[in-house]
Every structure is written in C-alpha cells, then in structure tokens.
Write a structure and sequence with these properties.
Blueprint lengths: L2 H26 L5 H26 L1 H6 L1 H22 L5 H8 L2 H13 L5 H19 L13 H22 L6 H27 L6 H29 L1 H5 L4 H14 L5 H19 L2
Helix pairs in contact: 1-10, 1-12, 2-4, 2-9, 2-10, 4-8, 4-9, 5-8, 6-8, 7-12, 7-13, 12-13
C-alpha cells in the first residue's frame, strides 16, 4: 500500500483510540483528578517508550537540541495542554457538548493553516468537512436537529474550545516545523519536555484534591490512555499530518463520535439506532471525498 493508505489507516486507529479515551474521560469524571490522570498517563507512556528510544535520542541529539524550543512548544500544546484541558472540561460539561465543541478541530486547523502556512483548504477538503459534520450532527442529535436549540454551554465548553485551538495549532506546527527524526524518537523528546511542563500543575492539584485513588479502574484508565490514546495515537497522528497535511488529517477527528457510539454498543450494551449508521456513513463518505477526490 502507498504512504497515503498507511496514513489513512493510522488516522483511523487514532480516532478509535481517542474514542476509548472519550469513554474513559466521561466515566472518570468526578472520580479521577483530571490533571493527575493526564500526568500519570504521560509519565507511564514515557517510561514505556524510553527503553526503545534512548539510542535514537542519542543519535539525533544534535537535531533535537537545535530544535529544542520547537519541541517544547509542540509538547506544551499537545501533551501538557490538550488532554489536560479535555479532562478538565469533562468535569463540568456534558459528553454531547464536548463532542460538539470538538467538531471545531478541522476549523481550527483550517484557521491556523491559512494564518501560518498560507494554505487555503482544497474544495475536496471543504466538501469532505461538510459531509463529515452533517454525519456527526446526525449522531449527536439522534436524528432530531431541534435538539441543538436546547443545548446550553458553560465554562467547561470554553475550556474545550481552548483545547481545540491548542490541538489545531499543534497539528499545523507539525507541518511547518518538519524535523527529520523517527516518529518514536520525536515522541520521546516531546514527552521529555511535556511531562516536566505538566508537573507544576499536577503538584498544585495534588495539594488541592489529594492523590489519585489506587484502584484497578484507575490503573486501567492510566494504562489504556498511556498505551493507546498516547503512544499509538500520537505517532499515527503525527505521521498522518506529515503525509496528508493538517487540514485533511484533522477531518479524522469526526470519526471519534462514530467510534464512541460503536464502542458504547459493544462494551456498554447501548442501543444502536438508524442515525448512528447513517451518521457514520456520511462521516466515512466525507473522509473518502477529502482523501481520494482529485
């Protein structure tokens, strides 16, 4: 398969991993401290990744040191900010509001692309975005668009908006600051910057709320988010942005609600309705238009 095919598969795996992350964020709201979950997630990911990347970090040390400021900015936007803000937003807003505000990720990527890269999205990308958005709204409203009028937004939604802007900027800067280092090595370098940047906020939360409970559900949440929502998803996302560009790669975020619905059916015994299937079909059609249409 071509590099584009592998990039598409990787981005679909990313969306599936983040769907599981969304379920954990909803289930742990009020039980696990949001910054603590983020800190331990990335700390465990760093411990797991370092044995496989120490040699590469040393081999590419000159490149990494020369781009140290850029790596620190990327780490601050993604590792230290995005997921921490998402977990924080989940404490005070509904799952549907989180997902609705999250639909702004492609728009955020479009905005930063035009501002920093001087790139105007292609018609195929815009068309795919609109199709994907229609499919997503169909899922979120249960086939009843009038439900959108009954939604109320709060402080948690503003936090999620900040997370979306942060992730959009991270995605575009990945395209602008190309660094010829293997994906795992670059990921390890970002973790080495991102975890210390997150540590002061973790210590503040620790003093306010106390430590994270030592339970099997907490360990499972940290383990899943460290391996799948962190290492697997981030490496696949970074590669997808490199191959497809930030505007097209960001469209795969529309798959997260569709995969979340499917996981809810498979793992939580939730009911599958017609609008799940129709919305998912529209979302996949939008991705097909954006990635294959010439």
């Amino acid at each position: 398969m071509s590099a584009r095919h592998w990039a598409v598969i990787g981005l679909m795996i990313t969306a599936l991993s983040w769907a599981g992350n969304a379920l954990i964020a909803r289930a742990s709201a009020g039980m696990l401290p949001p910054i603590g979950l983020s800190f331990w997630r990335w700390s465990v990911a760093l411990v797991l990744l370092l044995p496989f990347t120490l040699r590469g970090l040393w081999q590419y040390r000159r490149l990494l040191l020369d781009n140290g400021l850029r790596i620190a900015v990327l780490a601050a936007l993604s590792i230290s900010s995005y997921n921490t803000l998402l977990y924080q937003a989940a404490q005070s807003t509904s799952a549907i509001n989180l997902t609705l505000v999250g639909t702004g990720l492609p728009v955020s990527a479009f905005f930063w692309s035009m501002l920093l890269l001087r790139q105007v999205p292609a018609r195929a990308t815009v068309g795919g975005t609109l199709l994907g958005l229609c499919g997503l709204l169909l899922i979120l409203t249960g086939g009843q668009p009038a439900r959108l009028l009954a939604l109320h937004f709060n402080d948690g939604d503003l936090i999620m908006l900040a997370a979306v802007l942060s992730w959009g900027l991270y995605t575009v800067l990945l395209q602008r600051w190309v660094m010829p280092a293997p994906g795992l090595v670059l990921m390890a370098a970002m973790l080495l910057c991102g975890v210390p940047l997150l540590a002061p906020f973790f210590l503040w939360e620790l003093a306010q709320l106390g430590p994270m409970p030592v339970t099997w559900p907490a360990a499972g949440a940290v383990g899943y988010t460290a391996v799948f929502a962190s290492l697997v998803a981030y490496v696949a996302w970074n590669h997808g942005v490199k191959v497809l560009g930030p505007s097209t790669a960001s469209l795969f975020s529309y798959l997260v609600p569709a995969f979340t619905a499917l996981l809810g059916v498979a793992l939580l015994g939730e009911q599958l309705y017609w609008y799940h299937l129709a919305g998912g079909a529209l979302t996949f059609l939008g991705l097909l238009v954006a990635t294959r249409w010439r």
